[in-house]
Amino acid sequence: MGLSARVVILAVLGLSLALYCGVDPFKHSPIADSPGFAAHRVPLPPWSDVPVERDARNLLQRSEVKFFNEVQGPESLVFDPQGRGPYTGVADGRVLFWDRHSWTDFAYTSNNRSELCSFKPSPLSYLKNEHICGRPLGLRFDKKTGDLYIADAYFGLMKVGPKGGLATSLVTEVEGVPLRFTNDLDMDGEDNIYFTDSSTVYQRRNFLQLVFSGEDSGRLLKYNTVTKESKVLRRNLQFPNGVSMSKDKSFFLFCEGSIGRLSRYWLKGEKAGTSEVFAILPGFPDNVRTNQNGDFWVAVHCRRSMYAYINGLYPRLRTFLLRLPIPAKFHYLMQAGGRLHAIVMKYSPEGKILDVLEDNEGKVVRAVSEVEEKDGKLWLGSVLMPFVAVYQLDSSN
Ligand SMILES: *[C@@H]1O[C@H](CO)[C@@H](O)[C@H](O)[C@H]1NC(C)=O
Predict the structure, then answer these.
(1) Where is the signal peptide (predicted)?
(2) Nearest to 359, CA basis, from 55, 50, 66
């Protein structure tokens, strides 16, 4: 075969591949179903700023796996003002309560529950009907009233009394823009609730598209329970997620999922109303929670891989890769460096890393959404797992 024939064959092959990827006739590409998909640049910090601290002993593997298949996708774990619980929101839209013997139904967010919301084999299999069944993500008790505040991904900011039942809606839109992916909240004890709407474009059931797009319509919001007014504190955020008040209530932290950092929003002092970077995280944060000491536990969904880093910086490359007929799951795993693995980090109120615990092999704790510290134990919830993991602090010694 002559050189020119080879060139022609290669050109034809290349063209066919480009055409196939461009047209994707079998709809295998992760963005095939979202015609409006646009990849945004993620302004990542220099690679050298990403923390390198590791838990070489993989201490999270020593966690106890509890309630296997009794709780599907428990994101947030809270204890009530009497210390009872935990309570957790699960994939079928209920908030469950552990009464020390069994799980009972405590509350729900949808007034339209049906057999669509009944038991399914895995947390992800509920995604299709979440907009009907509800999806309670962030949970917080008001310590004075015993009311439970709920950030429901679909129904917005809600509240239910100490006896539970159907939650009532508090906020469904802010400054004229509907909440589309309400994610987490915390309160200052002075009638203010700070909460996040992760996107005004994508709902939670399309969270992979949100992850892949790096889309920046997320908002940090405030609601006053007395005046019933809400307002936008920060907009154009890329997947804002967890929120947690500092112990002295002079600031709160919020997670920015796509960039992978914690930001600090000042409530008191000279810098009140301003925000700044608090810490760069090694991966994609979900929730953050403050312990009794005033330190912050952050749940991190996997260490960012170099693949994810480059994809974040170059949206055109990302779009090209996402057009390839490769399943979404594969792209997701590549971002996570090949396998799901959980990392939890503890920060001081000054932003210093105090502790890193991980299961780098994803053997026991493959994913983590929240870390709640109580009585020397870490309660680890995850939207992706059918259990709660409990880690005994100091079990390292
Ligand atoms: C109520 O649920 C049914 C399915 O069980 C669904 O078809 C309908 O759209 C829902 N109504 C509302 C208002 O969400």
Answers:
(1) 1-18
(2) 55
Other CB atoms within 10 A of residue 119 CB? 10
Helices (H), the chain: 3-23, 130-133, 207-213, 306-313, 315-323, 328-335
Distances (CA, A) of 222 to 173, 252, 397: 11, 12, 42
Domain coordinates in residue numbering, the chain: 31-392
Q: Which residue puts its alpha carbon closest to atom 1 of ligand 1?
A: 112
The upper half-sphere exposure of residue 351, i.e. CA atoms within 13 Å in the direction of its Cβ, equals: 15
Ligand 1 centre from 83 Cα, in Å?
Answer: 36
Query: Is the sign of the CA dihedral 101, 152, 209, 312 positive or negative?
Result: negative
Summarize pLDDT for 349-377 with one digit per residue, the tens.
999 999 999 999 999 999 999 999 999 99
Report d(CA 198, CA 307) in Å as an integer: 23
Q: State the distance from the centre of ligand 1 to the C-alpha of 133, rounded, in angstroms.
A: 9
User: What pLDDT, on a 0 to 100 scale, did the predictor assign at position 23?
Assistant: 56
User: For tokens 């009464």, what's the residue?
Assistant: 99
DSSP designation for 71: S
Of all residues in the chain, what percent carry a pLDDT higher than 70? 93
Å from CA of 109 to ligand 1 middle: 14
Question: Which atom of ligand 1 is the closest one to the Cα of 114?
Answer: 5
Q: What is the dihedral of CA 320, 325, 329, 332, to 10 degrees?
A: -10
Checking if the pLDDT of 277 tops 70, the result is yes
Q: Which CATH class is domain 31-392?
A: mainly beta
- 150 with 107: CB under 8 angstroms? yes
pTM: 0.92
**CB within 8 Å of 262: residues ≥ 6 apart:** 253, 254, 255, 256, 277, 278, 279, 281, 285, 288, 296, 298, 347, 351
User: How many angstroms separate the alpha carbon of residue 131 from the centre of ligand 1?
Assistant: 9
To test the pocket of ligand 1, the residue of 132, 172, 205 to mutate (highest count of ligand atoms within 8 Å of its CB) is 132
Pocket of ligand 1 (CB under 6 A): 112, 114, 116, 132
